[in-house]
Amino acid sequence: MAFPTTRLRRLRTTPVLRNLVRETVLTRDDLIMPLFVCPGTNVRNPIKSMPGNYQLSVDQLVEECKRLYGIGIQAILLFGIPEHKDETGLVACEHNGIVQQATRALKKAVPDLYIIADICNCEYTTHGHCGTVVDGDVANDLTLVTLAKQCVSLANEGIDMVAPSDMMDGRVGAIRQELDKNGFHNLPIMAYSAKYASAFYGPFRDAAESAPQFGDRQTYQMDPANANEALREVALDIEEGADIVMVKPALSYLDVIQRVKTNFNMPIAAYNVSGEFSMVKAAAANGWIDEKRIVREILTSIKRAGSDIIITYHSQDIVKDL
After folding, report:
1. Is 313 annotated as a binding residue?
2. In whole angstroms, what is the distance from residue 315 CA to residue 133 CA?
3. Residue 12, annotated as binding a ligand
4. Which long-range contacts (CB under 8 A, 24 or more apart) does 224-230 make?
5. pLDDT band at 120 (very low <50, low <70, confident <90, very high)
6. Do 117 and 153 meet the contact criterion of CB atoms below 8 Å apart?
7. Is Nucleotide-binding among the key words of this record (predicted)?
8. pTM of this prediction?
9. 303 is catalytic
10. What pLDDT digit, counting tens, does each position of 171-187 carry?
11. Which of 85, 181, 248, 281 is catalytic?
12. What dihedral do alpha carbons 209, 205, 63, 51 form, nearest 10°?
């Protein structure tokens, strides 16, 4: 039928009717809040390029997580800023590593909070790259050993999920094998499967103190021009044992999220990254946009594209409205 018999505006006439026919519904259950934990006591360092976010010592992280859980955020993604670094990132595997300390404290103070650990070496290496560097480049297979050890170390402390973000070939399989060998058969892996070498990560590198000291990460993170390659990366991670696959960043890669959703019957996460967050905050601070409406529209678009899970620094701003 065509106009005038068909009038699509009929279903837009009232808020109740619009809600009844809404196709994409954003809920607080979709959200994961990223947080940064650092050494010390009573430390709450503002991250200037990411308004409203902080580097938090373990005691302050506990208080922040109590607050977040109280407003409805049930899951966090934890990044560690260590007291000291080394050449290979093995510091991330220590019993008293910063994320290990944080996990123990959070499990005691906020036992129902779901804690996901980002698994990578860039925060823990002196050179800022995501693995062991040999002859000026990251040695893929040597790095897998460190990543697997990091996961087992955190599993021993009670972490709920591991999320390898390094983009080394074969790391999901190496991690799954090592976790299973140590009895952690039920610990899920959320793989950063299609992680692009993006310019949107700038503020994060300030927050995590993880900028590479030489070169860049284009030999292991994906070319932003490629989408078919993302499907190959996702397929390999699923074959190796990933339980959730991720696309990162989100906004410039909504097409990739949609293609992954169409091609794979898997839970999909999308990371609404620091640069995407900070641009919104900067525009809102200048009065150029309605921040609340923009954030809801952005997160709805990510979910509409096919993401089941959204990792976003906006979580604490929008959760009350959901």
Report:
1. yes
2. 35
3. no
4. 224/196, 224/197, 224/198, 224/252, 227/255, 227/256, 227/259, 230/193, 230/194, 230/256, 230/259, 230/260
5. confident
6. no
7. no
8. 0.95
9. no
10. 999 999 999 999 999 99
11. 248
12. 130
| Token pair listed for 219 | 């030999």
Q: Report how far apart, in Å, the C-alpha atoms of 41 and of each of 59, 62, 69, 98, 172 are.
A: 6, 12, 22, 12, 35
Positive or negative torsion for Cα 237, 239, 242, 245: positive
The CA-atom distances, in angstroms, between 169 and each of 23, 188, 236 are 37, 19, 9
Domain edges within the chain: 25-321
| Residue 275: other Cβ atoms inside 10 A | 20
Per the DSSP assignment, residues forming a β-bridge with 62 are: none
CA proximity to 175, closest of 158, 160, 153 = 153
Domain 25-321: top CATH class: alpha beta
Q: Is 38 annotated as ligand-binding? A: no
**Exactly one of 195, 261, 292, 320 is catalytic; which is it?**
195
Whether residue 120 is annotated as binding a ligand: the answer is yes
What is the per-residue burial (b if ≥16 Cβ within 10 Å, else e) of 157-177?
Answer: bebbbbbbbbbbeebbbbbbe
Query: Is 217 annotated as a binding-site member?
Result: yes
pLDDT at 28 over 90: yes
Rounded Cα gap, residues 228 and 27, in angstroms? 30
Kindly tell me if the per-residue pLDDT of 239 is higher than 90: yes
248 belongs to the catalytic site: yes
d(CA 248, CA 217): 14
- CA–CA gap between residue 177 and residue 179 (Å, rounded): 6
How far apart CA 74 and CA 322 sit, in angstroms, is 13
151 is in an annotated binding site: no
Q: Which of 62, 42, 44 is nearest to 53 (CA)?
A: 44
